[in-house]
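Data card: per-record layout.
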Amino acid sequence: MASPKDFINLLFLGRKRISFDEYVDFVLHHPEYGYYGKSNKRRGLGEDFYTAPLLSFAFGKCISNFLISTLRFFPSNKKLTILDVGAGNGMLLKDIFSSLSAEREKNIQFFFCAVEQKDILRNEIEERFKTLSQHIGINEKLEDVESFDGVACFNEFFDALPFSRVRIEGVRREEIYVECHDGVFEEKKGKISSDIKSAECRRWFKDFLGRGEVDICPFYEDIFKKLSAKMNSGFVLIIDYGDSAYKLYDKDFPQSTLRCFSRNRVSKNPYILQGEQDITFSVNFSEIAFQAKRHGFKVIDFISLQTFLIRWGILDIVSSLASDSAIDIKRYNEIQKIKNLLLPGSLGEVFKVLMLAKNIKEDSFCKETDF
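The structure for this 371-residue chain is written out next.
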């Protein structure tokens, strides 16, 4: 890790202040010193917070059941791509691959594609698929993916993006900036720094006249522009921590959803443990849906992760795990993980699933819905 002085110099590059999203981008994604940087040996999956893929095969099996249900929308001879954006170490993609073995035996052609920014994780994906290299493509960026038809999955991707914070005081809207004086980080208010941020703020918070903060992510549009350029037809699954704009924020007293995680501890201070803690926020699914529709996608469903898992077979998996009279510790642990997503007030209710479609013939399953 750089010395505090070198860290600050690299962060500010001679500037007096930077936007909060620039700060978050640096401390999360700097290739050497960021939380997700290559020098950080964390695998970025479950060491600092519980994540859905830790259900292992059960989570992948439910997604596979969803994928199987979409096959009828594609020509029988069409080679379908299963794209995982923000694939981590490839565990989820491998579980989906294994769960689709019966479909592959029916000569349905699947190609698996991972997009992962972090070098060390791309290496893990390559190792995980080392005997199946003909079935997978591994890319650093979404724009590197070849055009495809199929299903794209964004699992806990959007809440890892840099985000800005906007202070609301009556009709006034000011962005939060970061300065550093004598080694101490300070927050300052100023004019909103881009038209993209201003537009997002107006879309969802123009009627907010109280006092507080909201979070803005200016990167959604670029992601859907790139995805739309690559996907000819297919479905998109977005699984993340968040909700609609109107459920995330109280109109009179909005509060930023900023959270920091380190070793399963939660704080609200992003200016400590730089590079050693994750900084995240609750995803505004209203903005995601808006940008998706602008780039040719339609919203077909928005449900809790709990509902998604039940709809696509999680209870059958529990029944199968519990059917053996001599349940071993591995099966018992899997059942407990599943229960932790299905109980009232659990992560299964907090995580949401947004389903999108592009150039798919509409029917009772694939029917556009109001968000």
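Known properties of this structure: The chain has a mean pLDDT of 89. The CA atoms of residues 148 and 269 lie 41 Å apart.

See the next section for split statistics.
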